[in-house]
Amino acid sequence: MDGTTPSRARIRAIMGVLTSREALEQAMAEHAGLIDEHDRGMSHEPVWTAFVRGFVGMLPLWVGAIPTGIAYAVAARSIGLAPGETQLMSLLVFSAAAQVSAVSLFDAGTPILVLVGTAIAFNAQLPLLGLAITSQIRMGWLSRLVTAWFLTDGAFGVAAGQGRLRLPILLGAGVSMYVAWNTGTALGILAGQAVPDPRRAGLDLLVPLAFLAVLIPLLRGRAALLAALVAAAAMLLLSSLVPSGVAVLGAGGLGSAAGAWWSRRTGGRP
Amino acid sequence: MSNLWSIVAMAAGVYALRLGGLLLPQRAVPPGVQQALRFLPVALLGALVVATLSGRGYDPTTWVAVAGAGLVGWATRRMWACILSGMAIYWLLRLI
C-alpha cells in the first residue's frame, strides 16, 4: 500500500518536511492513527456480527446443499434406512459424499470397516483444512473440538473469501451448512414418505445424480478431470473382479495417483 | 442396530479427520501426500458415479438421463440443475 497510494496525511507529512518539524510529527501521528483505527475496525468486529456474516456468506451454497440432502434422504429411505437413522447420519457424519456412498454400499451389504474406510477416504482432504486454519488462527481446546464438528471445504472457502480468516466467520459458515444439510435431509425424509415405492418411481437414480452433482463443480483443471476419468475407468474394470467397496477404494486410489502425477508433470498447476 | 453402529463408526472416522488437522503440528503432512490427497475426493466420486450406475443395470434411459444431467451440470455449474434435469429427462423418456 505504502508508496503506491499517497494518502492525504502522507502528502501533508512531505509538505511538513518543507515547513516545520512540528507539522511533520503531527501528520505522521495522524497517519499512524488512521491505520490503527482501520485495524481496530476489522478485528474488533463483535463476535456475533462476524458469526452472522459467515452464516449469510454460506447462503448461496444452500441452493446446492438442500437438493443434495433431499436426494441423499430419499436414497437412504429407498434402501430401507429408518427415518431416524437417515437424519442421524446427517447430524453425526455431516458429509454429503460419505453419506451418499454409504447408502450405495449399505445396499450391497458391505462390512462396517469398508464403510468407515470409504467415509475416511472421501474426507481425506479435511486434515489439510485443519492445518491451514491453525496456521492462521490460535485456538484453544474447546474451539478446536467445536470447529471440527462443523468443518467443511465450503465453510473454509467462504471464511477464507472474507478477508483475514477469523474463527466466528468460519463457525458461522460451518453452522449455516449444517442447518442446510439437515434441513435438506428432513425434507427428503418427508418426500420419501409421500412416495410409497421410490425405486419403482426411479428415484434411486438420485444416487448417481447426487454424486455427479457433487463431482462436477470440483472438476477444475485437467488434473482433476484426469483423476475422475481414470477412477471411473478403473471402476468399470475392477467392479467385476472384487467386491464393490474394495473396488471403489482401489479406483479412487488409482485416480488420485493419476491426478497427482499429472499435476506434478505440469509443475503443480491444477 | 448394525446400521446404527455403522453410522456411529463413520461419524467417528470423519470427526477424527476434522479434528486431526486442527491438532496436528504444522508441516506434519509431506507435500507429496498432500498432492495425492487433493485428488482423492474427485477420483472417488468418479468411481461412485460408475458404481451406482452399473448397479442399476445397463438401461439406456438411465445413461441418456445421466449424460444430459452431466451436460446441464457442466454448463450451469449448479448442483440442483444437474439433479433436477437428470430426473426430468429420465421421467420424460419413461413416459414416451
Structure report:
- The complex is a heterodimer of chains A (270) and B (96).
- With 270 residues, chain A is mainly α.
- Chain A is 75% helix and 0% strand.
- Chain A has 14 helices and no strands.
- The longest helix of chain A has 28 residues, at 167-194.
- Chain B is mainly α and 96 residues long.
- Chain B has a domain at 56-96.
- In chain B, 84% of the residues lie in helices and 0% in strands.
- Chain B has helices at residues 2-23, 31-55, 60-76, 79-95.
- Chain B is elongated, with a radius of gyration of 19 Å.
- The N and C termini of chain B lie far apart (43 Å).
- The mean pLDDT of chain B is 86.
- Classes of the chains: A mainly alpha (270), B mainly alpha (96).
- The interface between A and B is large, with 98 and 68 residues.
Q: How many β-strands of chain B, per DSSP?
A: 0
Content-based structural category of chain B: mainly alpha
List low-confidence stretches of chain A: 1-41
Largest sheet of chain B: none
| Beta-strand residue percentage of chain A | under 5%
Beginning-to-end CA distance, first to last residue of chain B: 43 Å
Order of SSEs of chain B = HHHH
- What order do the SSEs of chain A take from the amino end to the carboxyl end, as H and E? HHHHHHHHHHHHHH
Average pLDDT of chain B works out at 86
- Net shape of chain A: globular
Provide a count of the helices of chain A.
Answer: 14
> Biggest interface between protein chains, with counts per chain?
A-B, 98 and 68 residues
What quaternary form is this? heterodimer
**Helical residue percent of chain B?**
over 70%
Bulk shape of chain B = elongated
Transmembrane segments (chain B): 6-24, 36-55, 75-93
Protein name (chain B): Branched-chain amino acid transport
Organism (chain B): Sphaerobacter thermophilus (strain ATCC 49802 / DSM 20745 / KCCM 41009 / NCIMB 13125 / S 6022)
InterPro entries (chain B): Brnchd-chn_aa_trnsp_AzlD
